[in-house]
Amino acid sequence: MRTGSESDRVRELQARLRQIGHFGRNPTGYYGSVTADSVRSFQAKRGLATTGSTDETTWQRLLAMTRTPTAEELRPPTERPLATPDKRCLTGRVLCVSKSSRTLAWMIDGRVVSAMDVRFGSEYTPTREGEFEVFWKSRDHVSTLYDTPMPYALFFSGGQAVHYSADFAANGYGGASHGCVNVRDKKKVAALFDQVKNGDKVVVFR
After folding, report:
1. pLDDT band at 104; cut points 50, 70, 90
2. CATH C-level class of 87-205
3. Fold of the 8-74 domain
4. Residue 15 — left, alpha, or beta (φ > 0 → left; ψ -120 to 50 → alpha)?
5. pLDDT tens-digit profile of 116-135?
6. Position 144 pLDDT exceeds 90
7. DSSP-based three-state secondary structure for 87
8. Could you write out the DSSP letters of every residue in 18-61?
9. 6, 127, 142, 151: which has the fewest C-beta neighbours closer than 10 Å?
10. For the segment 68-98, what is each residue's pLDDT rounded down to a tens digit?
């Protein structure tokens, strides 16, 4: 496994590294710079070659020091607690997006179906707040403005959409979107994409 890898095995690697204090985030399944740095730290402490890639020697040493991760360790709902839902989220089918908790809750009639970490636009390209509707779904979307992939895009306000971000998966909150609601868990947003319909409500609030 190395930078650019994306798989359930990477997710397990991250969860095992987290068990022994070498990975300070929730597993994402994406092997980015943060994961490479964590592996490098683990390798250095064990006297292994500090490549940042996970070879068989590194993997076996990690297996010997850790236990099989639980389902909760592999796929925690969110990095931070969910916010109290805005009252507009409590009826119908709603993507309930909290800027303060940096979470998205997919809710149906007041019940949380799934939840995921999200990030937003910068101060120069802020994510709009308010009540919207999903008006277009695009599974393999590529931004015509920025020429960047936006998989599983759920558009709700002009060019702003909820979508998967490989950059968010790799680099966490060190970056920002151009106004979209970025999701870093690819499997979760893929499942969300399949469930959400055009016309479903989107509420973005503080």
Report:
1. very high
2. mainly beta
3. Muramoyl-pentapeptide Carboxypeptidase; domain 1 (1.10.101)
4. alpha
5. 999 999 999 999 999 999 99
6. no
7. helix
8. HHTTS--S---SB--HHHHHHHHHHHHHTT----SS--HHHHHH
9. 142
10. 999 889 987 777 778 899 999 999 999 999 9
